Amino acid sequence: xxxxxxxxxxxxxxxxxxxxxxxxxxxxxxxxxxxxxxxxxxxxxxxxxxxxxxxxxxxxxxxxxxxxxxxxxxxxxxxxxxxxxxxxxxxxxxxxxxxxxxxxxxxxxxxxxxxxxxxxxxxxxxxxxxxxxxxxxxxxxxxxxxxxxxxxxxxxxxxxxxxxxxxxxxxxxxxxxxxxxxxxxxxxxxxxxxxxxxxxxxxxxxxxxxxxxxxxxxxxxxxxxxxxxxxxxxxxxxxxxxxxxxxxxxxxxxxxxxxxx
Length: 261
Prior knowledge:
The chain is α+β, with helices and mostly antiparallel strands. The protein has 2 domains: 171 residues, no CATH class; 79 residues, 2-Layer Sandwich (Beta-lactamase Inhibitory Protein, Chain:B, domain 1), CATH 3.30.1450.10. 24% of the residues lie in helices and 34% in strands. The strands form 4 sheets. The protein has a 6-stranded mixed sheet with strand order 3-9-6-5-1-10. Strands 11-12-13-14-15 form a 5-stranded antiparallel sheet, with no helix packed on it. The longest helix is centred in the first third of the chain and has 11 residues. It is elongated, with a radius of gyration of 26 Å.
């Protein structure tokens, strides 16, 4: 399959546009290095028919992307694997189709029928499936020149990880430094959510729920006596209290400091 893809790409016409400064070899390398590549998503990608703009610095308008997400929903979430399904090199930008882009699967001619008298049949067989991907557009604001696929992947690094890593590792990279350190130290901080506690401590030994004065809480217990036992109290999805007890060892200690804000 890979050999077939390489031959197909090599056979593609790669015209040199008057405005850009890429050589023929550079354009071929970009197409070969990006087309059909898989990546792990590092941040929420909304579905979008109109290309989501990314600056050549890697920056993007998160507020605008969030607005698009409310309209069309998600194309991919953190930890998902996506594929580049089309690469278009333009004068001052690179357009990337992700997971087939966003297409309805319908065409204007799907409702057209032909025939004679009352005997008609649709022109289209309607077998084209809709896609739920998205589109990205890297803006350079100047003619493309001396660019490699590795450099394009680096530009996209805030969004996509082209290295083969687990979804857990990708998710951990998105966390604030204090929480990342706590997870590495296998500690729980107030303000953590359930996923972060699971990363830090694994699955609890015991769970229990109670409601006191209208406040519904859930306690997770880690560890067994004799030794350290950690009690983590949630309200909703957030940790509101952490307590460590040293069962059978004659001492008790308060939990870690609250998460810095």
